[in-house]
Amino acid sequence: MKVLIVDDEKHVRDAISLLIPWQEIGVDLVLEAEDGEAATRIIEREHPALILTDMLMPIKNGVQLLEWIRTYSPGSKTVVISGHDDFDFVRHTVKYGGMDYLLKPIDPDQLAEAVQKAIDAWKADEQDRMQSREQTIEMNQIKPVYWDKIFSNLIHEPRYYYSVQDAISREFFIPKEGGRCQAVILTLDTMDSTVMDKFSSHLDLLYFTLTNICNEILRREGVGYAFRHWSSENELVLLFWNGFERLKMILTEINDGFYMTLNGRFDFGLGAVEAFPNGLGNSYKEARQALRARNLLERHNRLHSYNSQERPKLSALHFTDYEENIRFAVRSSQPERIKEAVASWIAEVKKLESITVEQLELWWHEYNVFRSHWIKDLLPEQTDIPGLTDEPAKMIVPMDKQGKLSLDLWQDELTQSLIHLAALMVRYQQKDNNVIYDIAKYIDSHYHEEITLQDIATKFYLSREYISRKFKQEMSENLSDYIGRIRIEKAQLLLLNPNLKITQISEMVGYNDEKYFSKVFKKITQISPNEYRKRELLKS
């Protein structure tokens, strides 16, 4: 904190400097000026929290200085120290926000009281300013989420528009009545393999990047806004309310921006131009259908317009026809047999001239149904097995760098998934007779306690070396990493309760040191506990 003393008499400045224990009240630097003009230059450069000023000074007097401070440094607090008991001086001090008016000769106690009062007022104001800045930053972070929700609601409930039309009009300058709109959809289901490899585990970051690129161009042109669709986790919707005749050119520019930033391009589905807001839902459906009906084996362009006359038929080829062969291969747990079974299925798929997203979704659904049946048949007593009974991830279509469906890549992914599934099933079939899983169960139940390798070795009558080696072999991770992961998974659930403090959660999952808990949490999840809580609460 800085203080400025302004007086044309040096002995007065020296006296004020000596009378106050500046460091004790948090002042790091005391500055001096011999007139109001010199003071303004120092204020512009140093931004002092408190200014102590005389009234009668050459060049620029105290009244002029107070008026200048009120305009150009309103955050600074002022105290007047004058040798004149003049009503006009007092009136001007009050008018321009002075905290106090002291008379010379200076009374040390009065000076100390006035300075402390001014410092306390400045600290209170600074706290308010910091909170305001934090709120502004937070609002700028939340604002895109707010508009995502608003526009997502408009797709399915156009009447909702009339409750938010003033806010939309102010933010985006959309005409309140008689406007038109066109929906364009970008989906991550069929992203380039280059982009998928880079962002497969960071889709939120990818959405953030895509949305920023879209809106930089759309808002520059004044034609629309891009938002993440809340009802479909893999969709970005571009809402156009102007520039329909330039739409394809603008989308091409956006795709060029994607390529420069991400080294990949995306497909767009285009709906028809409709009345806003009542026709937005229909335009959205058309754009979605345009994407779902395109032939993924062809690459003509990235823009796909809706055509009501084109409705591709689904193939008569079903995953069901090859299920038995693949099931027996998985039960054998032999990688070569699994590779052969998948290859025979893909060989038939390669004979097709057209494959749409709808077709892939049908096969994906059939595969997941049979996968559930296989697990239930082979492991009837197991109801909650991580990696096995978890819900399958949402379908991501494997595309090559040219934007076409890569059946070879799909074959590799399906083969590796089934080999992994077979290995998990074998492991869990042996689970009941394996002491390592008893140790894992013990950790799952006692994660909130202080658990050491020696404690576990004593309890299970095994050597520490054996437990360390065997646990890594069976669980594919170190014992300490497993304990940390279980604790952080429990902490993630507790963070969904906004009434629990981070310190409480830290202790509840076995960490007595909150800073160490936050460090471990960020190492495992890539974000801090507070950031995780904010993100998950926003989702809900």
From TrEMBL:
Gene3D superfamilies: 3.40.50.2300, Homeodomain-like (1.10.10.60). Residues 2-119 form the Response regulatory domain. PROSITE patterns: HTH_ARAC_FAMILY_1, HTH_ARAC_FAMILY_2, RESPONSE_REGULATORY. Keywords: DNA-binding, Phosphoprotein, Transcription, Transcription regulation. InterPro entries: CheY-like_superfamily, Homeodomain-like_sf, HTH_AraC, HTH_AraC-typ_CS, Sig_transdc_resp-reg_receiver, Tscrpt_reg_AraC-type_HTH. One of its GO terms (biological process) is phosphorelay signal transduction system. Residues 437-535 form the HTH araC/xylS-type domain. This is AraC family transcriptional regulator. It comes from Paenibacillus swuensis. The lineage of its organism: Bacteria, Bacillati, Bacillota, Bacilli, Bacillales.
